[in-house]
Specification:
Elements (H helix, E strand, L loop, with lengths): L12 E6 L3 H8 L5 E5 L9 H13 L3 H4 L2 E4 L8 H8 L6 E4 L5 H17 L9 E4 L19 E5 L3 H7 L13 H17 L2 E4 L8 H14 L3 E4 L4 H8 L4 H16 L5 E4 L2 E4 H15 L1
Parallel strand pairs: 1-2, 1-8, 2-3, 3-4, 4-5, 5-6, 6-7, 7-8
Antiparallel strand pairs: 9-10
Helix pairs in contact: 2-4, 8-9, 10-11
Protein name: Citryl-CoA lyase
Keywords: Lyase, Magnesium, Metal-binding
Organism: Qipengyuania flava
Length: about 300
């Protein structure tokens, strides 16, 4: 069984904010998002990237180490020309973590690790202490490497992207006629989940672009949590409370998990136990313990 270790900070909601807008960065920071991601990639045009780097570095420098733990930065992808400049600008300010977009496989995270380690050492930061979340399905080729991320010590989470994947495929849309993700994108979601669990890192659901429909957001967040996801990306502060609630075990779920754990503790030699008209076995015990770890960890 691959048990995902509980992260040192909560990772339910990940809210993007464009790095070229101090106002939006401040608003995101003031939200209840577990993690805020200052974006240097899609949200910033090429001509504005240098100013955005400087703005993010200045913003981070004004925060305490405790505050910075939840303030991450999405750099540009390694197949482009800006990643090194992004890291050189923001790493001295001690961001809580780095998001790597368009990861092509573990070799990209390894390359990023090497670049970050050098900058950590130069700036008096403990080497390896800045975690990474990788976006792992944004190109067609990357879909085939989602299971290769195990054993990367800096990797804390994996997430997936439907918009860039559609662009990579030349697709007209990533949705079917009912408005749900088409099969290829559901496959991307599944591969990300499987890859993250195999790597023992936190699986994070992709964004919902319709930030006004919070009812649909809640339904989707609950559905993917039931599948095994532990958190979700957000593009608007209004989405954050919905995501936080959806990915927080309810009192009823916690009570049920404790009852299952207690039942097996009282019957240590039992492989199966009758319960509420059904049968519990060891996988039920494992899932109950994992849920309690999310609450008590």
């Amino acid at each position: 069984m691959n048990a995902i270790p509980e992260p040192r900070i909560r990772m339910r909601s990940w809210l993007f904010a464009p790095g070229d807008s101090g106002k939006k960065m401040l608003k995101a920071t003031e939200s209840d998002a577990d993690i805020v991601i200052f974006d240097l990639e899609d949200a910033v045009v090429e001509s504005g990237k240098a100013d955005a780097r400087a703005a993010i570095a200045e913003f981070l420098a004004g925060k305490s180490a405790e505050e910075r733990a939840r303030l991450w930065v999405r750099v540009n992808p390694l197949d482009g020309q800006w990643t090194a400049d992004d890291l050189a600008a923001v790493m001295p300010a001690g961001p809580g973590g780095i998001m790597l977009p368009k990861s092509r496989g573990r070799h990209d995270v390894e390359q990023l690790d090497s670049m970050m380690s050098a900058l950590e050492q130069e700036n008096g930061i403990e080497p390896g202490s800045t975690p990474v979340i990788a976006l792992v399905t944004e190109t067609a080729a990357a879909m085939f490497t989602t299971g290769d991320y195990g054993g990367l010590s800096r990797l804390a989470a994996m997430t997936w992207g439907a918009e860039d994947l559609a662009d990579s495929l030349g697709a007209q849309s990533n949705k079917d006629f009912e408005g749900e993700f088409a099969f290829t994108y559901k496959l991307a979601r599944s591969l990300c989940l499987l890859g993250a669990v195999a790597a023992e890192v936190v699986p994070v659901e992709t964004i919902d672009t319709n930030f006004r429909d919070l009812v649909a957001l809640r339904k989707r967040a609950i559905e993917v949590r039931r599948q095994g996801y532990r958190g979700m990306l957000a593009i608007h502060p209004a989405q954050v409370p919905v995501i936080n609630e959806a990915f927080t075990p309810t009192e009823e779920e916690v009570a049920e998990a404790r009852e299952i754990v207690d039942l097996f503790a009282a019957n240590p030699d039992a492989g199966t136990i009758g319960w509420k008209g059904g049968m519990l076995d060891r996988p039920h015990l494992s899932r109950a313990r994992q849920l309690l770890a999310q609450v008590e960890g």
